[in-house]
Specification:
Blueprint: H1 17-38, H2 42-68, H3 74-107, H4 130-153, H5 157-183, H6 192-224, H7 234-260
Helix pairs in contact: 1-2, 3-6, 3-7, 4-5, 4-7, 5-6, 6-7
Protein name: Cytochrome c oxidase subunit 3
Subcellular location: Membrane
Keywords: Membrane, Mitochondrion, Translocase, Transmembrane, Transmembrane helix
Length: about 260
Amino acid sequence: MSTHKNHPFHLVDISPWPLMGALGAMTMMMGLIKWFHLFNNNLLLVGTTITILIMYQWWRDIIREGTYQGLHTLKVANGLRWGMILFITSEVFFFISFFWSFFHSSLSPSIEIGMQWPPMGITPFNPVEIPLLNTLILLTSGLTVTWAHHSLMENNFNQSLQGLTLTVILGIYFSILQGYEYIEAPFTISDSVYGSSFFMTTGFHGLHVLIGTTFLLICLIRLYFNHFSNIHHFGFEAAAWYWHFVDVVWLFLYISIYWWGS
């Protein structure tokens, strides 16, 4: 591909990754359905493996285009910023639907669940135990990712590496505690609308934490290999935005489901 052009836009090359990524995601979802119904996770493992491999190669190509070929100009980066803003906005509405479901069920409990909230037979989590610890972990990780971002803007790469490493560790720690909480849960996703609302909302948030941790881990590796400068680091900026979004969602989740809802 020729890098000589008289415009600031990025005309992308033909790539197999969008189509293959869609096929991998479809295989993964079909495997998930098969796992739920037949308790056989073979197709799910195949789909997940395909999706991870395609993500790696697609991300690799984008890094090459933006870092080594210089195709992510200021104009292109501005478009990527708007794309990330709109993506996070769509995620906000995604979580609003879960909170709507929770409050619809909790503010006017139906006769099927004993006209009380939490429903009869449900023992909710103590909000000042693991949930409070997870809240402190995510708030601390928000501080460390901001520290890393500001250090990068000030050309302090050592402190930026330290802050980003701490953020990734805290993200992994949060996921471990969330997994432990699920294992020790006194109710399941099948236990009334409370169980469904709780596990759907916290589960999807946990999935976003895993995605955000992966995003930040990739940024940590790129930072180690000097892919970012103090003025050109949108990949890191997008990861930080996403992480702050995850933080804010957790605060609403903790207050409404763990504290008020219990």
